[in-house]
Amino acid sequence: MKKNSAGHARYSGSLRKHWRWSIYLALTLLILDGILFFRDRTAGIIALLFTAAYFIAIVVIYTWYQPRILQELIRFAASFGQIQSEILQELEVPIALLEADGHVLFLNDQMCSLTEKKSSFRKNISMLFPEINRGTIPVSGLERDVQCSYHDREYRAHIQRISLTDFVAEGSLIELENGAENLYVLYLFDETELNRYIVQNRDQKGVVGLVYIDNYEETMDRIDEVRQSLLNVMVERRVSKYFDTVGGLLKKLEKDKYLLIMDRKGLDMLIADHFSLLESVKTINIGNEINITLSIGVGTEGKNYQTNYTYARGAMEMALGRGGDQAVVKNGEEMIFFGGKTQHGERTTKVKSRMKAQAMRELILSMDNVITMGHAMTDMDSFGAAIGVWRAARTVGKPAHIVLGEINSNIRGWVNSFRESKDFDESMFITHEQAMEITDENTAVIIVDTNRASRAECPEILEHAGAVAVLDHHRQTMDTLEHAALSYIEPSASSACEMIAEILQYFEENVYLSSLEADCIYAGIIIDTDNFLAKTGVRTFEAAAYLRRCGADVTRVRKALRESFENYIAKAEAVSNAEKYMDRYAISQIRETAIENPSVVGAQAANELLDIVGVKASFVLTAYDNRIFISARSIDEANVQLVMERLGGGGHLNMAGAQLTGVTMEQAVLRVKEVLRVMTEEKSI
């Protein structure tokens, strides 16, 4: 921009107004002259002469002093601009001036000293600080903070946008290219010490934990008294030594329960170690038939120790609800899981079943109406369990209903059999709309075969019900239904039908099951155990024996469970097209087909793939209803439930599933492979 010389300059702004008002006020003397001239001509002439002299003096003074005043102003502006430049240059804060693309226009002395660059450095700022680039320079906003580092020091870079119209300085230090609209000022603040203190403060925060021995009584009952004391000492010593390495304080509360106090730094070490104590304690063997397993619940990031203890209790409840043999870290609403890779021990007592049966009976008796439902896309296990709950409610004289959505081929034949039978009324099965109409504060809603409210057949009725009960055999997840009046979650059970069969035996002395009801519940056990091959224990066979006594017939059930020719062909194709991944996992696909329930076929195909030598786990992906259903199966060498949790699903150690939306089949397969690779490297599967 070309500067005007002082001789050609003119006043402007407030200075010009000042001079104009001086002239305007001087003109008022003419009014005085007129008044005097009207009173006395001689006095008026004298005053007019003085006024003329006054105006001449003003003109002379203005003409004489104008260039000198302007010169003084220019000198002051130049001096002030130089002072600004020196202040900017010598400011203790490192400063850089950038273009929109990150090109450096100016570095002050502190920035040059920090970066060891000369003031003539004109390359992109990302060469010095990779974190600062075109993506982090504010475009829509006026300013932004970016965390960056340089030579082992940590900085907070404050980037502020300024308009060129506001960037005015005489004797500018830089030359701007034409077309530039905005500049960016970068300030660097060293936060190395602050971050170090923040880390130290975080590391010193208190953490509360609980450590339980899962199977203490069962283990001690199977060894002699001499070895019991030795086993006790060995377990306590190994647990104490493990937590001593991270500075933890362990206090024994009961014979099988410990309280743990440590700091956050110690917890981080345990997390990095993946709580190896879970596996280490299993190696203790002094002749005991059952390996010792632990459950660990840890609470952190609470405002005080009391809050962390509450978190620890919640984490322990989750660990036990998932079958034990795992560690759960609860950070507010977030939970992190470790372990849980072994099969749940079989239940050796029916006390819990008897207690839950009595609790469910009292709950039903306290309400006027009972509604039961399984999970969405009802399968044979959830349907059979719902039939058992329906029968229990009718036994004590309460009206009961089963909520069904879309009736798929898995249960269509069974539903038709109930509807055609004269022993069952039409109100036995109701729709979502009907359930919404009749649910009120005097209604008990009993959910079977899922503990997640979002997966229930009709979750809308839960908030209107007077009481909610949960009966499930899947391991708990973070979104488990809370505040249930009755919760019976038993991961060691083979199926929800097995659990309801046990409950019916203790519900009332004379619970009568028709042959159709017994067949239905029996079929649920067969499906979930893959014909008594998976997750089958003594209690499973006892439940099956009870159902046989009630009239269940193996032949009828087998005929009812036969599959269509199309389903069999689809399953065979899925098995034949499977690929082996990492030489231990079988992965196959079932794309959109004409079969009605391809996800069921996928689950059956996953079971078939386990019969192949060397396959530790199988995963069959099925495209259906704009979603990708994943069926995961294993025998005892891999925990597929942990794999499915990484993908947003869940289930059992050897039988789990997940659903993916918004992805193609190819993308879903890649996600499964990536999770398997990562978890195998972590040794967490």
Would you mind describing this structure in some detail?
Strand 12, helix 12 and strand 13 form a beta-alpha-beta unit. This protein is elongated. The longest helix is centred in the N-terminal third of the chain and has 50 residues, at 41-90. It has five domains: 6-89, no CATH class; 91-198, PAS domain (Beta-Lactamase, 2-Layer Sandwich); 206-339, 2-Layer Sandwich (Alpha-Beta Plaits), CATH 3.30.70.270; 351-560, Alpha-Beta Complex (inorganic pyrophosphatase (n-terminal core)); 565-682, Diaminopimelate Epimerase, Chain A, domain 1 (Roll), CATH 3.10.310.30. The protein has 685 residues and is of the alpha/beta class. The two termini are 70 Å apart. It has a six-stranded mixed sheet. Strands 14-13-12-15-16-17 form a six-stranded parallel sheet. A six-stranded mixed sheet has the order 18-19-20-21-23-22, with helices on both faces. The protein has 22 helices and 23 strands.
